[in-house]
Amino acid sequence: MTTIANNQNQLLTQSSWRAALPQQVLSWLPLTLFFPVGVMYAGVLLFALSLLISGDYAQKWQRIKTSPMLLPVLALSAVTIVVALFQTRPAGEFWSAFWHYQTYLFLLPFLAVGTGVVDGKAAWQARAQLVLFGGAIYASTLFYLGAAGLLPPTTLFRSYVVYEGNKSILLGILLAISAGWMLHAWRWRKDQHVVRAVAWLYVVAALLLFAKSRTASLLLLVLCTHMLLRNVRLNTRTVILAALLGATLFGGVKYLAALPPPATCLTKQMVSEQQLNPASILAQRAICTVHQLRDFNQGKKIGEDGMRLEIYQVTAQIIAEKTWTGHGIGNWLALYQARAQGMMSAAMTTPHNDFLLYCSELGVLGMLALMGIFCQQLLVAKKMQDSEHQERAMLLAMLGVTMIVGAMFNAILRDGVFGMAFMILLAIPLAGVSKKLK
C-alpha cells in the first residue's frame, strides 16, 4: 500500500510540474524582450513546447473560450480573411502582410495558462513583473555602458550602442512601460521606498538620455499622467494644477517654436558631428519635433527626421481613394512608392501608423476592428478594478494606452518585433480574466 501511495504521489508531482511549466516559462519571457529578437522567438517556441507537454487541453481551451479578448481577436482575423478573398493579393507581399495581421492570435495560447502558482509561492504574474523590472535594469545598465564607450557593438549589444530602427524603439517603449508599472507596484505595495525610487530614476534617466526614442519619451509622460489622473481625486485644486500644467506645456511649445532651427535633427549627426551630450540631444530633438510640425503645417520642406508627416499625408490620399473597402492586404507598399517618387520617404516600407495602414489595406471595417481590440483592452481594465484582478487592472490599462499611442507613430502590429513583445506583456494582466467579469 505504501508503494502504491508513493507512486501516486510521484505521478501527481510530475503532473503538477508539467501543468505549471507553461506558467514558469511565460513568467521569464519578458526578459527575452531586451535581447536580440531571435532570443524572444526562441523563448516563444519553448513556451509552445511547454504548453504541448503540460496536458489538460480541455481546461486550456475553456480559458481561451471564456477570455474577453477572444471575440475581438477573431473579428479582426475574420475581416482580414474577407478582404483577402475579395481584394487583390500582390505576389511577394501578401502572405507576410496577412500573417502580420494575425499577430493577436498569438495572445490566445498565452491566455491558456490562466492564473496559478509558481513554486507554491506566488502567482506567475508577480514573477513576470519582477522579471520585466529586472530586464529594464539590465537594459538601462547597457545603455549607460554604451554611452560610456564600454560596450562592444556585437550582435548581443548592438541595439544599445547604435540606433537600429524598430528594435531600438521597442527598447525605449519597454523602458517606458517598465517605469509605469514600477510606479504602480510602488503605490500598491507601499514599501522599500528608497530602492523603488532609485530603480525608477535609474530606468527613466536611461530612457530619456540614451534610448533616443521620442515615442518612448512621450509614452513615459502619458503613462505617468494616466496613473496620476486615475489616482487623484478631481477637485478645485487638481483642476487648477492641470490648468497650470497645460498652460506651461503650451508656453513651452511656443517658446521652442520661436527658437532658431537646429543645424540637424538626426541623432547620428548630433553625436558624430556636433559631439552633443545626451541631455543636449534630448533638448534638440524636442526643438526639432516642434519645428517639423510647424513647417509641415505651413507647407514648408521638412527634414529627413520628420518624414513621418510626409508619409501620413500620402497615405491619407491612398485611403481617400478606397476608404470603405481598402486596397487589399499587402498593397500599401506599391501604392505608396508609386506616389512618393522623388520624396525623402520613398524608400519607407510601412506608414509608421497602424491606424493608417489598417484603413488603407482593410478599409474602415479593418480599422474599426483594430480599434475594437484596443477599446476592449481598456474596457476590461476598467472592469478589473472591482474584481479579484484589481492589482493588474492598471497594468492592462497602461498597455492599452501604450498600444494606442504607439500605433499612432509606429507599426507596432505590422512588425513582429513589436507585435510579439506586446502579446507577451498582455498575457501578464489578462491571463485568468474571464468575460463574465463584472
Automatic annotation (TrEMBL):
GO cellular component entries: membrane
Primary location recorded for the protein, binned into one broad class: membrane
InterPro entries xrefs: O-antigen_ligase-rel_domated, WaaL-like
Taxonomy, superkingdom: Bacteria
Key words of the record: Membrane, Transmembrane, Transmembrane helix
Any Pfam family: Wzy_C
Residues of the O-antigen ligase-related domain: 204-370
Compartment list: Membrane
Keyword hit for Cell wall biogenesis/degradation: no
PANTHER family according to UniProt: LIPOPOLYSACCHARIDE BIOSYNTHESIS PROTEIN PA4999-RELATED (PTHR37422:SF13), TEICHURONIC ACID BIOSYNTHESIS PROTEIN TUAE (PTHR37422)
Protein name per its UniProtKB record: O-antigen ligase-related domain-containing protein
